[in-house]
Automatic annotation (TrEMBL):
Keywords annotated in UniProt: DNA-binding, Phosphoprotein, Transcription, Transcription regulation, Two-component regulatory system
UniProt DNA-binding region: 130-230
GO cellular component assignments: cytosol; protein-DNA complex
PTM annotation (4-aspartylphosphate): residues: D52
The keyword NADP appears for this protein: no
Taxonomic path: Bacteria, Pseudomonadati, Pseudomonadota, Alphaproteobacteria, Rhodospirillales
Pfam families: Response_reg (PF00072), Trans_reg_C (PF00486)
Domain OmpR/PhoB-type residues, every copy: 130-230
Molecular functions (GO terms): phosphorelay response regulator activity; transcription cis-regulatory region binding
BP terms from Gene Ontology: regulation of DNA-templated transcription
Response regulatory domain boundaries: 3-116
Protein name: Response regulator
Length: 240
């Protein structure tokens, strides 16, 4: 089911929307502004953002345009601004859907389901294409302890980073439990802190983004762990 962030500066409305979406099986986080949204993104990867327009500081149109410029996540505008010009501005900024407050939660739920279906179809097609093109795969060079990005950037890895990425990429698309990740990090099962694993993943994402400009395709899987959601080519062996 979908990971969703609801961005609205009305805490009561935000909680109500989050409560409803949680009851229908979605994993939901709330943010009251653009900075609060940005603070969530390193540790919670949303499939979709439900976004108000009238927010303190950066408005929803600007946030939507910024998200769309570097992400394929779904964007649903949920706002009281019903003028046609506002609708057009929201869609031009990158929103996939534009809903007017007050909204029936069932309509919001249906919109999210429809959008998630479209996104999953698009992503599945993209994965199939990437799987056919080995040049587009991620890989590892065991001789230099480096991650090789699809655009051929080589990112040096520490021992811990290499072990984590190795276990996650061994079977791309299949979730890996937190216990297995903890074991790969040399921690005793049952004695590790979930937040420490989340912090490792956040640091890895930032490192890959900073060095290569590419997004590391590691995603959180609710109640399980993490998944490497991209094709991985054959590793380059030390004796190759």
């Amino acid at each position: 089911m979908a990971n969703v962030i609801v961005v609205d500066d009305d805490p009561d409305l935000c909680r109500s929307v989050a409560r409803y979406l949680s009851l229908v099986g979605m994993t939901v986080q709330c943010a009251g502004s653009g900075p609060e949204l940005d603070a969530l993104l390193p540790t919670f990867t949303p499939d979709l953002v439900v976004l108000d327009v009238n927010l303190p500081g950066e408005d929803g149109f600007s946030i939507a345009a910024r998200l769309r410029s570097n992400s394929k996540m779904g964007i649903v505008m949920l706002t009281a601004r019903s003028h046609l010009d506002d609708r057009v501005l929201g869609l031009v900024a990158g929103a996939d859907a534009y809903l007017i407050k007050p909204v029936e939660f069932r309509e919001l739920e249906a919109t999210i389901h429809s959008l998630m279906w479209r996104l999953s179809t698009t992503n599945r097609t993209a994965r199939q294409k990437a799987g056919e093109d080995e040049q587009a795969a991620w890989g590892f060079d065991a001789s230099t302890w480096s991650l090789i990005t699809p655009s051929s950037h080589m990112v040096p890895l520490t021992n811990a980073e290499y072990r984590v990425l190795q276990i996650l990429s061994a079977d791309p698309g299949e979730p890996v439990s937190r216990e297995s990740i903890a074991f790969a990090l040399g921690k005793r099962v049952g004695s590790y802190d979930d937040r420490s694993i989340d912090a490792v993943m956040a640091r890895l994402r930032r490192k890959i983004k900073t060095i290569s400009g590419e997004n590391l395709p590691i995603r959180a899987v609710r109640a399980v762990g993490y998944v490497f959601a991209a094709p991985v080519g054959r590793p380059i062996k030390e004796d190759a």
